[in-house]
Design brief:
The chain is mainly alpha-helical. It contains 18 helices and two strands.
């Protein structure tokens, strides 16, 4: 095997190895919550309990909080069909793997059309591992997995559909699942419309048209737009002005707090740094020589920083947007943008150096070193803390009792159990004494009653 063949083989395995590395880091950080699942927040009461009592597959389109969270619904329906002792582990591990894959997806060879050098894309992905974004809930919670679903959607819609018809359909199905998993997935519609316009192959163009229709159906049927704060109250022009001002303030604060936490505590600093990032991103897009990223990816990163925050402000301005999950998507793409900017700056410097072996890796390593320092100094890379051993034991006892009850009753019917948790977390219960009887009555053949 020649050296070129060895390098080609190594390159083919690089992305799978990257996925394994980022998954290992993610599992390490969430280990306490994977080893002893607590089913925090909605995972116990709104996911497991609901689907244990309502097992019908049409419940995939259950509306919760004004939208259809398709992916959590799917995971919930799968979880209640597993052995009870495995259920809490599945509800913790599945979203963790989704979070790891979302952090790794930009490293896929398909993104070479936007960032040709693999080392640069791998540096962006590894920055999410060494300076992670979001708390435990956005990593290992099934109900909150919608935020990684939206992030993954915004990455994948950039890609063209595969040329193979079957693969194209499967890819479109995956996008449809992500579209129906988050109330703000309409933010991905511009990319789908661009591909619908640019695509020349008739089959792929039809699939893009179906994806546009899927987006429209999701907005019409899968969300309640009338619940948006922007739709209430003052006149449209005043509300539009409020939307713009709140979005600008929130974006500037999020980007700077997340990427440059060492700046002065001055009101002007977030705006100045955000303007600097915007100018740098524009410069990266317009460079003619030594450019590391295409103008398309630079424009999309800028859009993905602003648009999700604008929609969240649109929907929740009167309810509060302080929770970290509301800034998860914008922070993810802001970190990717800053990483590309740092790489571009170092490229402009090192291209004047003698081009020896390893010099081309310096830009990616320099950007990764910055985010590594950021992750260590802010303790973001540390394992998640705050695990509640008492609640984990309560959950474990609950599912052990559930396994015994299912064995005694010969199934899931006629069971009434409660899991009592403490520390402000949500307790949950299941009661299938009535639901199974009503299901049996409705399914009974009328001829048998005579």
């Amino acid at each position: 095997m020649t050296t070129a063949q060895k390098l080609a083989k190594l390159r083919a395995w690089a992305w799978p190895l990257l996925i394994l590395l980022i998954t290992a880091v993610t599992v390490f950080r969430a280990y306490d919550f994977l080893r002893a699942p607590e089913l925090r927040a909605e995972d116990g009461k709104k996911v497991f309990s609901f689907f244990y009592e309502h097992r019908e597959w049409p419940r995939l389109f259950r509306v919760k909080a004004g939208y259809v969270p398709f992916l959590p619904n799917l995971l919930g329906l799968i979880s209640v069909r597993l052995p009870p002792r495995a259920t809490p582990y599945f509800l913790a591990i599945a979203p963790t793997l989704l979070a790891a894959f979302t952090a790794s997806v930009f490293g896929a060879p398909a993104f070479r059309r936007f960032v040709p050098k693999d080392s640069v894309r791998y540096a962006v992905c590894l920055s999410f591992a060494v300076a992670p974004i979001g708390p435990m809930l956005t990593t290992s919670n099934t109900d909150y997995s919608i935020w990684n679903a939206l992030t993954l959607l915004l990455w994948l819609v950039l890609l063209p559909l595969p040329r193979n018809k079957l693969t194209s359909v499967l890819f479109a199905c995956a996008l449809s699942v992500l579209i129906w998993s988050h109330p703000l997935s309409v933010v991905a519609l511009p990319a789908t419309l661009v591909w619908l316009w640019r695509e020349r192959a008739w089959f792929q163009r039809c699939v893009h048209a179906l994806l546009v229709a899927c987006q429209g159906a999701h907005v019409w049927l899968g969300t309640r737009a009338g619940d948006a704060s922007f739709a209430k109250g003052a006149g449209p022009w005043k509300r539009l002005d409020e939307l713009a001002s709140v979005t600008l303030r929130q974006v500037c604060r999020d980007v700077v707090d997340h990427v440059f936490p060492w700046g002065p505590n001055a009101a002007w600093f977030p705006y100045a740094m955000t303007l600097l990032i915007a100018v740098a991103l524009l410069s990266c897009a317009l460079l003619r020589k030594g450019r590391v990223a295409s103008g398309v990816i630079c424009a999309w990163l800028a859009y993905a920083i602003v648009a999700p925050t604008a929609l969240i402000v649109f929907a929740r301005a009167e309810h509060g947007i302080a929770a970290s999950r509301y800034h998860y998507v914008s922070n993810t793409f802001a970190q990717a943008a800053v990483c590309l900017i740092l790489v571009q700056l170092v490229v402009l410097v090192v291209r004047r150096l003698p081009q020896r072996t390893g010099v081309e890796l310096l830009p990616a390593l320099a950007a990764l070193a910055y985010f590594g320092y950021l992750g260590v100094s802010t303790e973001r890379i540390a394992a998640f803390t705050g695990a509640n051993a008492s609640n984990a034991q309560a959950v474990q006892r609950f599912f052990e009792q559930l396994a015994e009850e299912e064995r005694t009753h010969g199934g899931h019917c006629g069971i009434h159990l409660r899991c009592q948790k403490h520390g402000g977390d949500w307790s949950f219960a299941i009661d299938t004494r009535g639901s199974c009887e009503s299901s049996a009555d409705s399914a009974r053949d009328p001829e048998l009653d005579h």
